[in-house]
Amino acid sequence: MSETQEKAPSGRHQNPNTQAVRVAFNPLRPTEKPQEFYDGIKQKFAEARDVRISYRPDGRAQYTSDLTGELAKYEVDPWVETIEERAAINDTVECLFIGGGFSALLTAARLREKGVESIRIVERGGDVGGTWYWNRYPGAACDVSAYDYLPLLDELNHVPKSFFAKGPEIFAHCQAIAHKYNLYELAVFQTTVTSTVWDEKAKLWRVSTDRGDTLSARFVICANGTLSKPKLSKIDGMETFKGHSFHTSRFDYAYCGADLSNLKDKVVGIIGTGASAVQIIPRLGRAAKELYVFQRTPSAIDIRDDIPTDPDWAASLKPGWQKERIRKHVETTAPGFGLTEAQKLDLAALPREEKIRRQENQNIEHQMRIHARVDAIVKDKATAEALKPWYMHRCKRPCYDDEYLPAFNLPNVHLVDTNGKGVTQINEKGVMFEGREYPVDVLIYATGFEVQVTGIYNDIRGENGLSLNDKYAEGMRTVFGIHSSGYPNLFIMGGYQASFQFNLTFMLQTQGQHIAECIKYVRDSNYVAIDASPETEEWWVQEVIRHRGKTNRNAECTPGYYNFEGESNRRQDGNYNGGMLQYCNQMADVQKDLQKHFRFC
Ligand SMILES: Cc1cc2nc3c(=O)[nH]c(=O)nc-3n(C[C@H](O)[C@H](O)[C@H](O)COP(=O)(O)OP(=O)(O)OC[C@H]3O[C@@H](n4cnc5c(N)ncnc54)[C@H](O)[C@@H]3O)c2cc1C
């Protein structure tokens, strides 16, 4: 696919891989418009970014995820009625997962296939599911193809009901995985791991929890999630608000009503217009008496065009269809795929600056199409202007929704555009912005999550009692984002130094397979522990550094969670940018010679 499409060809939805990548840039396509056009827009992008940074130069520090004291209510689990009483557990298992989302489930499935019986999930929530346990807000759904996103579809013989599966279906799929692989038996819910300490003598991890447990495990897998700890913007006066308030990942149906009908006489405010808010706002708009949407930076809203799964297509799928689909995706999205030899030569001959220029220009064309879509849908001109994203595609997570923009045509939905400033004050009645008060009955924080942090709620200590955070103080050091030398038998999923994928489960499945291979090798070889060698760790850190220079995303993008809110950070403290195929290939190479890359005992 060489450029973006307003109307996708019919029949594309369920054909493997025709839709996995919605936007691809073709460096062989010369720029169409005069360069001044693109330069002018790039200048506006830079200005919009500078405005954002000028208001909040404090990067990630502008948020808090320390939800204690007055803020503790924003993290309370609304999906359990009571905390179940139970005696503290004090036993040993072979594999212990911290977290019960897709990372844990798909890795546990691979471990079961390799004969591992003793598997425990320890999960803060009341069930498995992770993201899909917590995020049950109205409209919750995946924003990549469900046929790719939901793992283990072959194994569970399940075909999602629609191209973008809804939250409840995804949550049910997580539960089905846990049942199929018998993961409930040893699972411990409503329990938060607070410390994970390596016992050098016993070669076991000692895991403590907030329920007084002392759990021991040969292997620990940190599957705590990439976006699982809610965060709030630090806004003056937020604790003084006398109305009702909650975070999107703890959606309060008791207050709103299961069908949101309790909101019909309520004035609702929502702070944030990121991916969760985009899914929620149309539903709130239809239900609330008045809805005020407080926006700092607009999301880019592309076509969703969801359709139910064609039953004939589903029936035609052969066993192994999902594996094949994923294999194809990795292959077809690798750089240079599908090019003729002549095109490859043309590409190789293009100077780097020209490649970047073309890529940026096509990116700008894409964003201008997003702007045109806003103009075509949103009737009020000032509102339409405010909803246009002034940054490159993928500086923030792109959203796909057909109801979000029309919601702003409803008479009761009001956009309060803060022009990059963000809400700065909350008082007992509601939100204050530039001298105007917006009284609300309920305030919903759509302010996102901590991103890709290893060991949330948890203190991880490896050899010599060294805390992982202290080790990382001089810069992250891992192999594939998974192993860190001095932390034997510890595996990290979804953290930095791994490949970043728009469909995260592509990456998590790769990691899960690798972890299962490592554990199998240790067991089969009668070892008790595996630890990354310092040399291999250094090699991977250098690989990450080498590839991170490829983009100026941090410097040029509008602040957001993809670029550490605009903070400048060390090159090793982010994702591996060498591409998914290369990540998989490097991992396969390492697996072929584990003895060389790891220390065993
Ligand atoms: C609203 C939303 C929509 C998303 N949509 C998509 C999408 O469409 N496509 C996509 O690719 N990705 C999406 N993501 C990203 C999503 O998080 C991943 O796709 C995936 O579900 C992550 O799985 P995980 O198991 O790594 O983490 P999670 O699903 O976050 O699970 C981690 C679990 O660990 C638990 N935990 C953490 N620390 C501890 C501790 N110390 N003790 C005990 N338990 C702990 C948490 O409670 C959590 O349940 C979305 C994220 C959100 C928030």
Per DSSP E runs of 2 or more residues, the count of β-strands stands at 21
The CATH topology of the domain at 92-123 and 183-229 and 457-600 corresponds to: FAD/NAD(P)-binding domain
User: What is the second-level CATH architecture of the domain at 92-123 and 183-229 and 457-600?
Assistant: 3-Layer(bba) Sandwich
In percent, how much strand structure appears in the residues? 5-15%
Overall, the morphology is: globular
CATH class of the domain at 92-123 and 183-229 and 457-600: Alpha Beta
Structural class: alpha/beta
Q: Note poorly predicted spans.
A: 1-12, 15-21
Average pLDDT figure: 92
Spell out which ligands are present.
flavin-adenine dinucleotide
Terminal residue distance = 50 Å
Write a structural description.
The structure is a single chain. With 601 residues, this protein is an alpha/beta fold. Among the domains are: 35-64 and 232-299 and 355-447, 3-Layer(bba) Sandwich (FAD/NAD(P)-binding domain); 92-123 and 183-229 and 457-600, FAD/NAD(P)-binding domain. 33% of the residues lie in helices and 14% in strands. It is built from 20 helices and 21 strands. Strands 2, 3, 4, 5, 6, 18 and 19 form a 7-stranded mixed beta sheet that branches. A 5-stranded parallel beta sheet has the order 8-17-9-10-13, covered by helices on one side. The protein has a 3-stranded antiparallel beta sheet with strand order 14-15-16, with no helix packed on it. Strand 9 (267-271), helix 8 and strand 10 (290-295) form a beta-alpha-beta unit. Helix 1 packs across helix 12, helix 2 (102-113) packs parallel to helix 16 and helix 16 (504-524) packs parallel to helix 19. It is globular, with a radius of gyration of 24 Å. The model is unreliable at 1-12 and 15-21 (pLDDT under 50). The protein binds flavin-adenine dinucleotide (FAD).
